[in-house]
Write a structure and sequence with these properties.
Blueprint lengths: L1 E4 L6 E4 L1 H10 L2 E2 L2 E2 L9 H9 L8 E4 L6 E4 L9 E2 L1 H5 L18 H9 L4 E2 L3 E2 L10 E5 L8 E7 L2 E10 L2 E4 L2 E10 L5 E7 L2 E4 L2 E4 L2 E4 L8 E4 L2 E2 L2 H10 L4 H15 L4 E2 L3 E2 L6 E5 L7 E5 L1 E2 L2 E42 L5 E5 L9 E4 L8 E4 L2 E2 L2 H18 L19 H5 L4 H6 L16 E3 L18 E3 L6 E2 L3 H10 L8 H9 L8 E4 L6 E4 L9 E2 L1 H8 L1
Parallel strand pairs: 7-8, 9-10, 10-11, 11-12, 12-13, 12-14, 13-14, 14-15, 15-17, 16-18, 18-19, 21-36, 22-23, 23-24, 24-26, 25-26, 26-27, 27-28, 28-29, 31-32
Antiparallel strand pairs: 1-2, 3-4, 5-6, 19-20, 29-30, 32-33, 34-35
Length: 561
Amino acid sequence: MQDIACKNCSTIFQVTPDDLAFYEKISPTLHGKVHVIPPSVLCPECRLKRKLTFRNERSLYRRTCGKCQKSMVSLYSTDKPYNAYCRDCWWGDAWSPLDYGRDFDFTKTFAENFDALWKEVPIIGLWNMKDQNAEYNNGCFELKDSYMNFNSDWGENYLYNYITEFSKDMTDCAYAQKSELCYECVDIMNTYHCLYSQDMENCQDCYFSSDLIGCRKCFGCHGLRHKEGYIYNKKVSDQEWNDFMTSLRLTRKNIKIYKEESNKIRITVPKKALHKTQCENSTGDYLYRCKNSTNCFDLTSGEDDKNLTYGVGKTYKVRDTYATGNSEWAYEFMGGGASVSNVAFSISLAENVTDVYYSVFCMNNAHNLFGCSGIRQNQYCILNKQYSKEAYETLLEKIIEHMKKTGEWGTTFPPEISPFGYNETLGQEYFTLTKEEALKKGYKWSEYKVATPNIDTISSDELPEDIHDITDDILKKTIKCEISEKPFKITKQELEFYRKLKLPLPNHHPDQRYKDRIAQRNPRILYERTCMNCHTDIQTTYAPNRPEIVYCEKCYLEAVY
């Protein structure tokens, strides 16, 4: 066991023999020699911060495609010196990533070499694949009739969702799986027609509730199992339920009251320290069927993973990674998956990619790459230049020795070459900084201002409280968010959804609604506490100063069952 002080924040972290064995296993082997990746000089949290400076999910801009010159929505504002293509042009055959290949300049750092390449090779404006009438989504796969969703896949009629999968008719939800006809719900699975609720599984017709499993017809309820016909955790008759629902009017004013009344119940019901289902020897929160995984969050079917956030599908031996699925033996990796293995220090690799280091946007049977961008199907490439296997290994050995001298070997891309300002990225969402703080840490900051269209807007407080008072004229108007003051519009599809569920129009911009929704989740931090019932030591994402009653799993199960 080795103690290391983080080069960035001085936090002491440990490197175990298992860590060293992992680094050696994923290190490149060239001419029969393993060029071992050394332990990171940054603590796990600082590694995550650095990666997230490269991930823009929600800051979208209008610009023209660098090839066909058509207007498109892009992650890259017009002041960014990158060659952004629309989806059709980027996936098309009219250009080749190898056309941008170049020799490695040993008078410069690796980062300088790669930065110059990255700015020239075409990059895709938005990540959105295999859609039907769902162009304006980012990080999405196989959506139909959907608009402005992020990191959401395999669904139909999605509006403004985040990490929602295998679902239908969903609006303003996050971390939702296999659900239908839900609104403003977070962390739900197999749930139908639920509103303003969180932590729900196998539920139907539930409202303003949390921590329910197998429940139907519950309003303002918390911590119930396999119950039907409850209002504020009290059993009611069928007639009482029907009368209550008949009198229910979901105006914004009433919704605020329902939330306040519901929270009075929520705060009295014990909370489970962590959300773990069918897990073995694993630490973290929102873990499903995980084994021997450490400090992981929002992970499904992970085994022997460490410091992994947001993993879907099968992951094995994946460490210090954000957003991946179906991958193994990956390190300092972000955004990718589908048969990815033996990769490190890379971004957005997908579809049968192996033995790739320090590369971005490479996919479709690409192998043995170093410092590449946009490579598909090719192998033995460095800075997008094709080599023979022998020449590739010889040159890469020299580059690794060069990177050791510059201090770059074994650490991910420096934030100075990120395409984004810190305030455009997930870094700002997870670890909020002022402009001065970000610049002091070496991060970029975007000053780009989206031009405000010269159009008439109405204040959100001018909106009628009841959806029955909304006419189709609202589709021609622009609304000013009462918090951010950003303008937004209501789409026809959105209006139909609100009318169907008898919901009032939102008075917040979609970005603000997302912030409010994500704020309902606990931070991805494990605190040491004691169970408030049996006083045994526990780990939990509830900070010690939180007002909730937090139990260990044993006491919690005894309380709710």
